Amino acid sequence: MKIILLGPPGAGKGTQAEFIYRHLNIPQISTGDILRENVKNNTDLGIMAKSYMDKGELVPDDVVIGIIKTRIKKDDCNGGYILDGFPRTIEQAKALDRAIQPDKIDNVVFINANEETIIKRLSLRRQSKKDGTIYHLKFNPPPEGEEVFQRDDDKEDTIKNRLKVYIQQTGPLINYYKDKGILVEVDGSKDVNLVNSLVLKILGKEPVI
Ligand code: AP5
């Protein structure tokens, strides 16, 4: 199964990707995570990407397309994968189509949420230092003793720019995938367990609740 999770920042793509990964055992590939790992390790890629990420802008297409083309060739992707945060522009989507042909993307799950929800979620998001697990200080607090961090781009001004960039540059992908007949929208503002089960239904799998 080749699955794309599309949606605004903070709608719950990473949360659902982790859940699908646990349920279907296919790798979760997050361009955001790969870029952040490079930032942390101070690689040339990371140093370049940071200048875009800190402003909430997109990293250039050729860079992320290269990352994805390499990653999906790995053996663990033979049974499919979950793309979380890629593609984000029409150019990325077309490059993905070309890279996987004659195969096709099976499902695009469009997880949607409004600006108020997004800001509430991102300002209180925290992640595990140990394994990156996503938490929310109110809705899904980390276990006691778990060391967590806040992402550099989860500041209100940067969040607002990420949202603007999403509408302008990623928004057109909704029609791109609607036209292919593979996009289904989920209301990401609902309770996380409900969103989990809706996503599984879309993927043709048994909901767990
Ligand atoms: P990326 O890391 O992809 O960030 P994003 O798309 O902005 O999305 P987020 O990770 O912020 O949110 P999410 O939808 O995954 O929500 P989450 O599940 O964490 O990209 C970061 C940057 O990298 C970009 O700005 C860009 O610079 C660069 N980049 C990445 N990919 C790129 C690409 N393809 N091209 C170019 N540049 C690229 O949930 C958020 C919070 O809400 C959490 O606290 C969670 O616990 C909580 N939550 C989730 N679901 C629920 C629920 N149902 N109810 C209550 N709380 C919930």
Describe the fold and architecture:
The chain has 209 residues and is of the alpha/beta class. Helix content is 46%, strand content 15%. β5 and β6 form a beta hairpin. α2 crosses α3 and α6 crosses α7. The protein starts with a strand and ends in a 7-residue tail after the last helix. BIS(adenosine)-5'-pentaphosphate (AP5) binds next to α1, α2, α3, α6 and β6.
What secondary-structure arrangement, pairings included, does this model have?
Layout: E1 2-6, H1 13-24, E2 28-30, H2 31-40, H3 44-53, H4 61-71, E3 81-84, H5 90-100, E4 107-112, H6 115-123, E5 125-128, E6 134-136, E7 148-149, H7 156-170, H8 172-179, E8 183-187, H9 192-202
Parallel strand pairs: 1-3, 1-4, 2-3, 4-8
Antiparallel strand pairs: 5-6, 5-7
Helix pairs in contact: 2-3, 4-5, 6-7
Given helix and strand content, the structural type is: alpha/beta
Low-confidence stretches: none
Helix content: 40-55%
Taken from the alpha-carbon principal axes, the silhouette is globular
Provide the residue-averaged pLDDT.
Answer: 95
State the separation between the terminal residues, measured CA to CA. 22 Å
Which ligands occur here?
Answer: BIS(adenosine)-5'-pentaphosphate
Give me the side-by-side strand order of the main sheet: 2-3-1-4-8
Radius of gyration: 16 Å
Summarize the main sheet.
5 strands, parallel
- The number of helices is 9
* Count of β-strands: 8
Strand percentage, roughly? Answer: 15-25%
Order of helices and strands: EHEHHHEHEHEEEHHEH
